[in-house]
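Researcher: We plan to redesign the surface later, but first we want a full-length starting point. Tokens attached.
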């Protein structure tokens, strides 16, 4: 399957996010200077949280590794592992990275709070930590992600657009959010509520353990039972994997309503083509991955992040963390050519297989 990097510099795409109050500085001077510099023969570790969501293995991992190799003239050693949604396993993986004496660790936490002690252990061992996609607790040196509240607002606005004249205060929708262990999920939720509250009635709302499509399916079935199929006008789904489970439950109830998503997974893009899913949030992974690699290599070499990270964010345990925040796009049937196909994420041939071919032709997807 072909993949191409999005030709946009991550730093240039960063958008502002004001830092809020917190307890302590993030990583001391790790974000800008170091007592000694190193060459290209550095050791970079990457830990990703799970493999149920397609993006991590298909996009994030290969993009980060490719950029690290490019930035180090192919001399860097790259170590990788996936926690498969197990926070305890990820803590063990951090220990392994410490044992392997990586110079820097790019970390996408399964549980942002639970990983704090592991982050501290890594920093105590002289390893700088770049929080990737999720803002891990602890003395991290840098962070890159998307503007997560904007993701939620984008989803909420799209759902209102899909509902059109039906979007009234008496209109009932169901909200199926992500996992409470993921700080991003809370931000998506906050952004969506800022748009939806007062415009429609949220008849049922769930926080979905482990972002599981199976759990989302069960939650949707429970919502249909409680609210009544005929009374549900739309569904806010925080990501595409869960949207798949939700749509399965809706189909079983004979119900077709607008459903949101996130991540522009191939299956979701195909559901958008066929009309089963209304939208997804397209998050260009290359700028995020490139930013993580650039910050990690700079930190490992003892170089400044000033030219890479233009923003600052805060967590409950750190403030003024140098950050790169990447904007997002609402992906609907109307802009597939201009987003995932244009950027080389998918080809038309990959999207328009079998039963989707006719719909692709009608939409002009090529």
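Model: Full-length starting sequence:
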């Amino acid at each position: 399957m072909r993949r191409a990097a999005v030709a946009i510099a991550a730093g240039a795409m960063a958008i502002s996010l004001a830092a809020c109050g917190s307890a302590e500085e993030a990583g001391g001077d790790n974000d800008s200077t170091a007592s000694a510099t190193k060459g290209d023969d550095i050791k970079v570790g990457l830990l990703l949280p799970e493999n149920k969501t397609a993006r991590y293995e298909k996009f994030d991992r290969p993009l980060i590794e490719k950029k690290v190799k490019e930035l180090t003239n192919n001399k860097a050693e790259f170590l990788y592992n996936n926690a498969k949604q197990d926070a305890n396993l990820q803590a063990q993986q951090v220990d392994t990275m410490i044992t392997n004496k990586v110079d820097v660790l790019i970390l996408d936490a399964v549980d942002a709070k639970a990983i704090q002690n592991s982050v501290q252990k890594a920093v105590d061992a002289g390893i700088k930590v770049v929080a990737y996609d999720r803002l891990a607790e602890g003395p991290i040196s840098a962070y890159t992600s998307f503007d997560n509240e904007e993701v939620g607002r984008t989803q909420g606005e799209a759902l209102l657009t899909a509902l059109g004249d039906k979007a009234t205060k008496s209109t009932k929708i169901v909200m199926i959010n992500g996992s409470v262990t993921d700080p991003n999920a809370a931000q998506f939720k906050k952004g969506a509520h800022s748009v939806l509250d007062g415009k429609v009635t949220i008849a049922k709302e769930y926080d979905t353990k482990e972002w599981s499509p199976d759990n989302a399916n069960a939650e949707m079935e429970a919502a249909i039972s409680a609210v009544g199929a005929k009374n549900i006008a739309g569904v806010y789904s925080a990501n595409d994997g869960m949207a798949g489970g939700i749509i399965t439950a809706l189909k079983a109830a004979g119900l077709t309503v607008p459903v949101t998503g996130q991540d522009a997974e191939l299956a979701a893009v195909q559901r958008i083509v066929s009309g089963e899913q209304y939208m997804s949030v397209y998050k260009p992974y290359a700028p995020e991955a490139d930013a993580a690699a650039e910050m990690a290599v700079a930190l490992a070499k003892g170089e400044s992040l000033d030219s890479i990270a233009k923003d600052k964010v805060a967590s409950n345990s750190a403030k003024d963390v140098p950050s790169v925040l990447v904007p997002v796009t609402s992906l609907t049937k109307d802009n597939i050519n201009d987003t995932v196909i244009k950027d080389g994420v998918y080809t038309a041939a990959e999207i328009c297989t079998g039963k989707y071919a006719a719909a692709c032709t009608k939409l002009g997807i090529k």
